[in-house]
Write a structure and sequence with these properties.
By secondary structure, the protein is α+β, with helices and mostly antiparallel strands. Helices cover 20% and strands 33% of the residues. The chain has 5 helices and 19 strands. The strands form 4 sheets. An 8-stranded antiparallel beta sheet has the order 12-18-17-16-15-14-13-19, with helices on one face. It has a 4-stranded antiparallel beta sheet with strand order 2-3-4-9, with no helix packed on it. It has a 4-stranded antiparallel beta sheet with strand order 5-6-7-8, with no helix packed on it. The longest helix is centred in the C-terminal third of the chain and has 32 residues. It is globular, with a radius of gyration of 22 Å.
Length: 348
């Protein structure tokens, strides 16, 4: 199995938290090979446009926002944030006439849901909206994040996504006393169900060899979901309290992927322990990153990779979902989830 070189399009990508984008300033993102400048309108709503001035290629994100336009830092050309059309070229004299409105920059639909910001990336670069689907909804993410970490992985997004959902690598890559070890491996049997543009490990009691869950006390129930383009969530409930782990895997380009993990909770214990738990969560991501770098040593030889049942079934589902999404968009029809309810078994 080789990683697919194409990205997922006609879908919403996670672009950051609300706190990332301050009024009056822009931030740069690169998603699926597209450089994007993200900012806020006067009313506080978010906007997104291609982060390249068509004049001399300077990034708008290094410029400023002025009255419904973004101003290029190089020559002051201004483009409307709604339609991407050029509104002003300061270098023009009163005798010179150019139809500036015909000079345009790509505008991307952007949406803020709770504390999460989403950008819609269409396959048609002329597309400006409105998108035919809404961004994913995570109601519990309407509160301030308790923990937040991110990093860049040196791999194609397919390998990052598959690593994210891999249930068998934990005892080998994440060998912490408080998590699990090779010696504590148990046989697992988990029920999976199809969900919107993805699937879920249905609500269940966490495995007894995962010490971290014991910190929550009580009788935790967890449900883990995945959906395109690369969003994994784990919602853990203990009585009326909730801990939401939100992880977004976003392609930067063919060889680099951004991963961001954010925790939202109303559990006082987790909030109080967050300064101590944060280094542990960060260690997890960095261990995955180290393994990705090791994996690249073999991938550069373009080997044929193997996927087995059942521990790799989620990886197979990911590729099947990805292919069906692209096919349904091309054929202009509804997406048909290829995932069927099934119990998967493995040891970890």
């Amino acid at each position: 199995m080789k990683a697919q070189s194409d990205f997922v399009f006609d879908i919403w990508y996670f672009a950051g938290l609300s706190s990332d984008v301050k009024r009056g300033k822009m931030v740069r993102r690169e998603i699926a090979g597209e450089p994007i400048s993200l900012g806020r309108r006067d009313d506080g709503s978010v906007f997104a446009m291609r982060d390249i001035c068509p004049h001399r290629a300077a990034p708008f994100s290094a410029g400023c926002i002025k009255g419904g336009t973004v101003e290029c830092p190089y020559h002051g050309w201004r483009f409307g944030i709604e339609d991407g059309a050029c509104k002003e070229i300061p270098a023009l004299t009163s005798e010179q006439s150019i139809e500036t409105e015909k000079i345009k920059v790509r505008v991307f639909p952007a949406r803020e849901e709770g504390h999460l910001i989403w950008i819609y990336i269409a396959s048609d670069k002329r597309f400006a909206g409105p998108p035919p689907i809404d961004p994913p909804s995570f109601p519990f993410a309407n509160r301030k994040a308790t923990m937040d970490d991110d990093m860049t992985l040196n791999c194609h997004v397919d390998h990052a996504v598959i690593g994210l959902m891999d249930p068998a690598h934990g005892p080998y890559v994440h060998r912490q006393w408080w998590w699990r070890s090779e010696k504590s491996m148990h046989e697992k049997a988990k029920k999976f169900e199809p969900r919107e543009r993805g699937f879920a490990m249905a609500a269940h009691t966490p495995s007894s060899n995962s010490f971290a869950y014991k910190l929550l006390g009580g009788k935790p129930i967890t449900e883990i979901t995945f959906q395109l383009p690369g969003i994994r969530t784990e919602e853990i409930k203990v009585g009326k309290k909730t801990l939401l782990s939100f992880t977004a895997v976003t392609p930067i380009d063919e060889n680099h992927t951004h991963i961001r993990q954010v925790f939202f909770t109303d559990m006082r214990l987790i909030k109080g322990l967050s300064p101590f738990l944060r280094p542990a969560a960060q260690a997890f991501l960095r261990q995955d990153a180290d393994m990705v770098d090791l994996q690249q040593m073999g991938l550069k030889y373009d080997p044929t990779l193997l996927l087995i049942e059942d521990s790799d079934t989620q990886a197979k589902w990911y590729h099947a979902i990805k292919r069906e999404w692209a096919k349904s968009r091309a054929e202009g029809r509804a997406f048909k989830n290829p995932v069927k309810a099934k119990v998967l078994k493995w040891r970890s």
